Every structure is written in C-alpha cells, then in structure tokens.
Amino acid sequence: MLAKFKSPLHGSAELYDDKIIIRKKTSTTPLIGKSEKTIYLRQLAGVMVKKGGLSSGHIHFATGGAESKRGFSKNIKSDSSIVFGAQLNGDALRFKQAIENQVSKINSYGIPSHSVPSPADEITKFKSLLDQGVITQDEFDEKKRKLLGT
C-alpha cells in the first residue's frame, strides 16, 4: 500500500501500485452495510476533493460514464466517494496528490497494470458475441448499459 485516506465515520481508500480500493460504511450498524470497490488507475478519469468547512467535504474518484454527467456534489452518494470532516482536508489533498503522482508514474514509465479491459473493449467483445448469435440484443444492451454506467 502506497497511501491511505481514512474517514472515521464513512470509510477509507487505499492506494496501491495500480489501483485504489474504497471501503465504505453505508449503515450505522457496524456489521451491515459495508462495501468495497476497486478502481484501477488506468480507469481513473480524475480525483476531486471538496474541502469540508461548515458542511462535510468529500473525495471522489471519477471513472467517467454517467458520473461525469452528474454534478460534483451529486457524486457524494456514489460508491466512489468518501465523506469527511474539515479536520481531514489536508489528508484528502495529500491522498489526491499521491494518486496523481502514481498515475503520472504509470503513464510516463509504462508500468504494466493488471490487464483490465476498457469499457470500449468490452462493448466490442459483446458486439462480436451478438453478431455471432451467442447473446441476444437485450443481453448486449444490458451489458453495454452497465459498462457505460447509464
């Protein structure tokens, strides 16, 4: 693990060589309502931080798709966001910088990441299966909708 950001009440995000793992608490019950999401750095479109002040701040990990069509403040409820208090503003900004540094390193040195196909590659694969008659139009449309996040 290269870096970690932790919000005591909402969850945490951990930065690794090629990915971010987001662990969230989605309920007030400790054993219920936990989720985990992995975002590979090659899929990451950006990291946004809204500093906390009178209201909570949040850090959002954007991967494109439907979330890029929503406003930044609407992404706060996303499974790709972590809410935090003003006392963690500096930690959030440092975590964002660590991510940006790692993405830059990957892009400039060509460090191989896990072979994660892009949504476009996946759609092309499913289109080929549709054309071959392996899947139905409805199945293709559903896969495409999920990959595009719509």
Low-confidence stretches: none
Structural class: alpha+beta
Order of helices and strands: EEEEEEEHHH
Radius of gyration: 17 Å
Distance between the termini: 32 Å
Largest sheet: 4 strands, antiparallel
State which percent range the strand residues make up: 25-35%
Mean pLDDT: 82
How many DSSP helices?
3
Per DSSP E runs of 2 or more residues, the count of β-strands stands at 7
CATH architecture descriptor of the largest domain: Roll
The third-level CATH topology of the largest domain is: PH-domain like
Q: Mind telling me the CATH class of the largest domain? A: Mainly Beta
Backbone shape: elongated
Strand ordering within the main sheet: 1-2-3-4
Helix content: 25-40%
How many domains? The number is 2
Notes on the protein architecture:
By secondary structure, the chain is an alpha+beta fold. The protein has two domains: 3-109, PH-domain like; 119-148, no CATH class. It is 31% helix and 26% strand. Helix 2 (119-131) runs antiparallel to helix 3.
Task: Chart the SSEs and their pairings.
Layout: E1 3-7, E2 11-15, E3 19-25, E4 34-40, E5 46-50, E6 57-62, E7 81-84, H1 89-109, H2 119-131, H3 137-148
Antiparallel strand pairs: 1-2, 2-3, 3-4, 5-6, 6-7
Which features does this protein show?
150 residues; 4-stranded antiparallel β-sheet; alpha+beta; single chain
Short description:
With 150 residues, the chain is α+β, with helices and mostly antiparallel strands. It has helices at residues 89-109, 119-131, 137-148, and strands spanning 3-7, 11-15, 19-25, 34-40, 46-50, 57-62, 81-84.
